[in-house]
Design goal:
201 residues, mainly alpha, Ferritin, two-stranded antiparallel ribbon, 4% strand
Length: 201
């Protein structure tokens, strides 16, 4: 039986003091740009674990949304691309923990839950996409400000930019303007964790 762990364990799992970060040019996605060796403090590892959980939620949500087929061909392509982006983000972040001799969480470790009828209508799916992408963007913006290792900041900011793209696409499907906040909200690690907790069993 696979052992599942709670949010507190997710943030502290494997943290036994500073860990070495080795990001090579083979690392998938934006984190390849941080190719160098550094020591990550526990704080930074906690952020990486939190963002991994966010990416797992993103992959799970988009996979469920794709199965529901809420949009026409163009919209389905956007969902598929968002799922692909979240998967690349996950792989890159997981590589940090692997390089730090820690086991990253996988989809087998977390049970995700959604509001009733979350995938029943096009509107429900689109609203949830906007809610989740707002949460993901806030988590990444908070991490950019909160991590201590400078090598992490640029790749995390790049992922935040991609999450903002997702938010703009699904916001537009709700009839929102493409330009909302001049300064999107950055979430603390605690607030981001609380936001993710809503979607875990």
């Amino acid at each position: 039986m696979t052992r599942r762990f709670n949010r507190a364990e997710l943030l502290s799992r494997g943290a036994k003091g500073g860990a070495a970060l080795v990001v090579t040019t083979s690392t998938v996605g934006a984190l390849a740009g941080a190719a160098r060796a550094d020591v990550l403090p526990d704080n930074d590892l906690a952020y990486v674990r939190l963002l991994i959980a966010a990416e797992l939620l993103g992959v799970d949500f988009y996979d469920n949304a794709l199965k529901a087929q809420p949009y026409g061909a163009a919209g389905q392509k956007q969902l598929a691309r968002a799922a692909f982006n979240e998967g690349e983000h996950y792989t890159a972040l997981a590589g940090i923990l692997t390089a730090s001799n820690q086991d990253p969480a996988t989809s087998a470790d977390i049970d995700f839950v959604y509001p009733k009828e979350a995938f029943a209508t096009t509107g429900a799916i689109t609203r949830l996409a906007v809610t989740l992408e707002t949460l993901f963007l806030g988590a990444y913006l908070g991490a950019v400000a909160g991590v201590q290792n400078a090598a992490l900041r640029q790749p995390l900011a790049q992922i935040a930019a991609n999450q903002a793209q997702h938010l703009a696409v699904f916001g537009a499907l709700l009839g929102r303007t493409g330009f909302e906040l001049s300064f999107p909200t950055a979430l603390s690690i605690g607030d981001a964790s609380d936001g993710l907790d809503v979607y875990t069993a």
